[in-house]
Amino acid sequence: MNDATVITVSKDQTFTVLDNETVIVNLAAGTYYSLDAIGTRVWELIQKPTSIADVCAVLVQEYQVEESQCRDDVFDLLDTLAAEGLLQVH
Asked: Which of 20, 28, 51, 70 has its CA 20 to 30 A from that of 41?
């Protein structure tokens, strides 16, 4: 994946948001995951196909975080989501 990669959530999952945290169930594997408030914001942003650069641009603006730190953190999260089958890379 790189900044221009377009991503979206997988169709094989369901999720709910509880108190700014997201609980995701991978329907194919029968496992569940949770995301904190910032992870939840990323999850919201990738509900429709979106580039990683666009996700980072929103987070940098909303959370006033350094772009390089945001990028590293977003790539770590997306790598994890992809490895668990929760993300589609277009």
From this structure: 28
* CB 7, CB 32: distance < 8 Å: no
Nearest-angstrom CA–CA distance, 2 and 64: 22
Alpha helices (H) in the chain, listed in sequence order: 37-45, 52-63, 67-83
pTM of the predicted model as reported, rounded to 2 decimal places: 0.93
Separation of alpha carbons 23 and 82, rounded Å: 16
Query: Which tens digit of pLDDT belongs to each residue from 35-56?
Result: 999 999 999 999 999 999 999 9
DSSP per-residue letters across 51-62: EHHHHHHHHHHH
Residue 53 and residue 61: Cα distance in Å, rounded?
12
Q: How far is CA 36 from CA 6, 29, 43, in A?
A: 22, 22, 10
